[in-house]
Amino acid sequence: MGRAIAVHSYKGGTGKTVVSVNLAATYARKGKRVCLFDFDFRAPSLQIAFKSNPEYWLNDFFDGGIELRDTLVDVTSKFSMPSVFEVGLANPSSTATRQILTKDQKWEMKALQRLLTAKDELLDKRKIDYLIMDTSPGIAFSSLNAIVASDLVLLVSTLDESDLDGTQRMIRDTYTSLEKKPVVLVNKVLIEQLSSEARRKSLSKEVEATFGVPPLEMIPCYCDVLGTSRRSIITLDKPEHPLAKQMDRISERIALER
């Protein structure tokens, strides 16, 4: 049985999308059957990394009238993957991003039903191993839908004070009400804070005290990744990069989370 993973954050700028894309690529490179959804309808960006402009977008599927298979872009051959690697992209046009802000709760409830149907189609019928959803930050309806539909939530936070505070409140209020316990990934950590095992353990304890769960991983702030994050899939373009090696560990640890 496959798993649906929502990658979420309290605010933008945490590197959530970089994590989503590279996690999906890591699983695909390992021979897993992977489908990646761009669920950040307010600020979609996956079309940049995958250099694709499909006929139909995920927006069209959730509006109704389009089958899920019509929106999926098969990038298996493009990236020479050993198994299935598909992406569902959100429409990046200014018109589409404005329209998503006008959707009411009734539309969102129907969108959740369609998402749950899509999840069943992908995981049960097509035997996808991992459905990974890169969500909008905060508590947008689309993000809540992804969280509800997920089997596991990977919550990405930085050590910025406002991010720590907002993420803590979101776990306490939103995640508790949805009966979801997230797995926390801390990103963009200063190298100095991870310079020794003692400092790493100390920081890990601080994060656990803040969020109530230990961090799955703490990723340093890589300047070269910041400069190319939207255009490059590090785990594929630079497999020897430290981030690629960390994504390997993260993928293995996620597989053990239940």
The general outline is: globular
- The CATH level-2 architecture is identified as 3-Layer(aba) Sandwich
Helix content: 40-55%
The overall average pLDDT, rounded, is 94
Query: Strands of the largest sheet, in order across it?
Result: 3-4-2-5-1-6-7-8
List its salient traits.
single chain; 258 residues; alpha/beta; Rossmann fold; eight-stranded mixed β-sheet; 48% helix
Walk me through this protein's architecture.
- There is one protein chain.
- The protein has 258 residues and is α/β, with parallel strands linked by helices.
- The chain has one domain (3-250): P-loop containing nucleotide triphosphate hydrolases (Rossmann fold, 3-Layer(aba) Sandwich), CATH 3.40.50.300.
- The protein is 48% helix and 17% strand.
- The protein has twelve helices and eight strands.
- It has helices at residues 16-29, 46-50, 58-63, 68-71, 94-100, 105-125, 141-149, 161-177, 197-211, 223-228, 234-237, 242-256; strands at 3-9, 34-39, 72-74, 85-88, 130-135, 152-157, 183-189, 217-220.
- It has an eight-stranded mixed sheet with strand order 3-4-2-5-1-6-7-8, sandwiched between helices.
- Strand 6, helix 8 and strand 7 form a beta-alpha-beta unit.
- The protein is globular.
- The model has no long low-confidence stretch (mean pLDDT 94).
